[in-house]
Amino acid sequence: MLKQLLLSVLAVLVLFEEWLWDILTVLGQRLSRLLHLERFDAWLSQASPKLALTAFAIPLAAVAPLNVGAVMLMVHGAMTAGILLEIAAKLLGTLLVARVFRLTRPALMSFAWFARLYEWIMRLVHWAHALVQESQLYRAALALKETMKRCIRKVLEG
C-alpha cells in the first residue's frame, strides 16, 4: 500500500514537471518574440554541441543560488518565503532550461551520454503516464474535467 502511494506521488510529480515544462516552453517562445530575440534564438539553434551544453548549463547555474537562498530562508524559519522563492526558482529555471533545450536539442543529442539521459527521462515520463492513467483518481479527474467543460460550454452558449 505504501509503495503504491509513493509511486503514485512520484508519478504525479513527474507529470507535473512535464506539464510545467510544456507550459513554460510556450511562455519562453512568447517572451522571445516579445523581446525580439529571434536572431539570438537562430544563433543558439546553430550552436556547436559544446556551446549548446554550456548554454544548457547556464540557466541551471543561474538558478542554483536561488535554491540555496530558499533553503537558507527555510532553515532560518522563514518557511513561506523560502517555499515561495523555491517555487519562483523552479519556474524560472524550468522556463530557461526548456527554452534552451528546445533550441539546442539536436546539438545536445550528439552527446551519447545526454541522449541516454534523455531516453531515460522519457521512459520515466511514459511510466508515470501509465501509472497515473491506471488510477481511479485519474479517471475521476478526467470525468470532473469533462463535466466542467460541459458546464462552461452551457454558460458560454446561453
Q: How is this fold's topology laid out?
A:
Layout (H helix, E strand, L loop, with lengths): L1 H33 L3 H8 L3 H27 L3 H30 L3 H22 L2 H22 L1
Structural account:
- 12% of the residues are buried.
- The chain has helices at 2-34, 38-45, 49-75, 79-108, 112-133, 136-157.
- It has one domain (2-157).
- It is mainly α.
- Helix 1 (2-34) crosses helix 4 (79-108) and helix 2 (38-45) packs across helix 4.
How would you summarize this macromolecular structure in one to three sentences?
This protein is mainly alpha-helical. It is built from 6 helices and no strands.
What descriptors fit this protein?
158 residues; 0% strand; 90% helix; mainly alpha; 6 helices
Order of helices and strands: HHHHHH
Shape: globular
Alpha-beta content class = mainly alpha
* Sheet with the most strands, sense and barrel status: none
Return Rg in Å. 19 Å
Overall pLDDT: 87
End-to-end CA span: 47 Å
Low-confidence stretches: none
Helix content: over 70%
**Overall tally of domains:** 1
Continuous helix count: 6
Taken as a percent bin, the fraction of beta residues is under 5%
| Total beta strand runs | 0
